[in-house]
Amino acid sequence: MTIAVPSSQPQGPSLQPVGWLRYLSFSLDHKVIGLQYLVAGFLFYFVGGALAGVIRTELISPMADLVPRDTYNEVLTLHGTIMIFLWIVPVVNGAFGNYLIPFYVGARDMAFPRLNAVAFWLIPPGGLLLISSYFLTGAAQSGWTAYPPLSITTPAAGQVLWIVSVLLLGGSSIFGAINFIATILKLRRPGLGMMQLPMYCWAMLGTSLLVLLSTPVLAGTLIMLSFDIVAHTGFFNPGEGGNVVVYQHLFWFYSHPAVYIMVLPVFGLVSEILPVHSRKPLFGYSTMVYSIMAIVFLGLIVWAHHMFTSGTPPWMRLFFTIATAFIAVPTGIKFFNWLATLWGGKIALNSAMLFSCAFIVHFVFGGITGVALAQVPFDVHVHDTYFVVGHFHYIVYGGSVFVIFSAIYHWYPKFTGRLLNEPLGRLHFLLTFLGFNLCFAPQHWLGLNGMPRRVAEYDPQFTLVNQLSSVGALLMALSTLPFLWNVIASLWQGARAGDNPWNARTPEWLTSSPPPVENWHGEAPLVLEPYGYGVPIDQLDLSTASGRDLWSGGR
Ligand code: HEM
Ligand SMILES: [Cu+2]
Fold first, then answer.
1. Residue 115: which residues within 8 A CB-CB, separation 6 or more?
2. Helices (H), 279-401
3. What is the pLDDT of residue 2?
4. Residues 503 and 348: beta-carbon distance below 8 Å
5. Average pLDDT, the chain
6. Low-confidence winner among 316-330, 368-382, 522-536 (lowest mean pLDDT)
7. Which residue blocks in 85-155 are alpha helix, DSSP H?
8. Residues lining ligand 1, Cβ inside 6 A
9. I want to staple 438 with a disulfide (CB 3.0 to 4.6 A). Which of 121, 175, 370, 472 is the partner?
10. pLDDT > 70: percent of the chain
11. Which ligand is nearest to the CA of 303?
12. Torsion angle of alpha carbons 57, 61, 65, 67, nearest 10°?
């Protein structure tokens, strides 16, 4: 007697919801989780943007005449906290990390899918708690840095809710980092070496190390701060014998690395986007990897450059200035690598490229003002002025947010199977580019001339320049309209993209668009040269190649 064995086990009904409902579910699919992070991040971005609108409207005139001063402080605190913890960190790490990394390592999902879903689902409660604190008790008023004694002396309820919500978001970030490290190190497809991974994997490996080393320090610090507020312990309260400068050290031990948690992943995304649209291999792959790791190390030992006016002793100022200046070296290497990738390439100047190229320009400018700020005599002059606001917005907006937009133009066809509309994309770019520079470039001048940050009122001599800055903010707000219209309408009306509209080589493009559950119908492809565009340098005929051929990888 023979028994017929079915060639494949019939699949029982999946417990996971299908259709659009899965985006509201505890889905374990890394692609669903990635898009959950992306959409949730954008919703919070619009709240944070509306708050920025309140700030810039208040600052049109020198008097505090739009909202009461306390409300201004709440708005400022919510704006900063939302933009950092609910928009940039979750999107550049959670959204793109979850969507791309399993593809890049040739895996069907992340190493710990349930932990992954938990990490995402900590975000909505954290965010809603933060925002609702404004309506429930009044929001925190001490800025995103929550420095004591201010955070101990402003109304306690809002500050405690702020701490709880940042703890939830920090927990989410730590769970995500554990997952990224495990996936990159342990789930790589057999035969795929570390030095063959797309650069975004290295960027996320470095970022996740920073998250694991520094976020727990923030969590511990905020728990101590909450004890000071609720139980009147005296860790940071000078009235109880505590020390406020200790708080600053602990806070910046997390928060300088935090700037790299917001920008290293972006370095990775740009390194994926530039080669595809300039049809060139990524220049200097291994120097890029070493630079990322150098930035991780240096990023951990420069925190006190935020504290030059807090009574730091001279030796400490010297050490932190020098260490900070060193960061310019690996950062410069990456900058020249991107330029060399573009050099001599067949550049398609589409919306994705426009946003990425603008990132390079803004990032250099923000990096230069950063090195300037690390010089004590200069920093003492502009600390806590609008110069600092200008500096970090060039990095976080001109850098990170521009690359988020670039990445959406690049990967939207992968997410949806449709292309975004190019003319609308260029209009979006133009408005954002003009609005952003008009909003933030003048702030350097304001700071150099002494306008303090975080205050609703200012000297009337600064009125005109503040008004210019507010017009820039208005342009930025308008620029989201063509973007939103494009993203929503293209879901139905966008031209069909096909599976690989950019003829890209990285593995996420070597499957259908959008990809199936578990990423590939058959076996995962083994991509050893994710940037294999043009003629590989070792196949060039050296007797006939020009210097330019060698320089441009033979294109
Ligand atoms: C890589 C991305 C970067 C990001 C996301 C970033 C972000 C920030 C932020 C958010 C602040 C303000 C902190 C606050 O609220 O007080 C800041 C201040 C500062 N940044 Fe950066 N930054 C970056 C790069 C750099 C670089 C490359 C340097 C130096 C080489 C630098 C040096 C400084 C200094 C010295 C301050 C303190 C200014 C002061 O408060 O007096 N930054 N940065
Ligand atoms: Cu810093």
1. 175, 178, 179
2. 285-299, 314-342, 351-373, 376-382, 386-395
3. 45
4. no
5. 93
6. 522-536
7. 89, 96-105, 113-121, 123-136, 150-153
8. 145, 259-260, 262-263, 305-306, 324, 327-328, 367, 370-371, 373-374, 379, 383, 388, 391-392, 395-396
9. 472
10. 93
11. 2
12. 30
